[in-house]
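Note to self: keep these together.
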Amino acid sequence: MSNVKARPESEAPDAVVPCCPPLSERPFTAEEAARTARMFKALGDPVRLRLFSAVASHEGGEACVCDISDVGVSQPTVSHHLKKLKEAGLLTSERRGTWVYYRVEPSVLAAMGQLLAVR
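Structure:
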């Protein structure tokens, strides 16, 4: 399992916040639309989608950067893409020693699934 502990949002500047209600529930506000667009834009890049998938499918829902960097680009490029995924609210990270561990919060996957659910 993970050593990542839930922290209050005030203590975690990169804390993940579920984006929006399902599309079929009501029209998005401007803020919800902007937040959702950032998420989908981040996932619109094949390397980022592979990294996101690698983290999400890794045992325990988190992965060390050392375990997910084989996506066909250099390490600095991997770091750039992971940063973009964090900025979009799709990943959180924690440094442990010399390595950084990335995590997809279950609430993000649930919110993304619910966003596209048809009721």
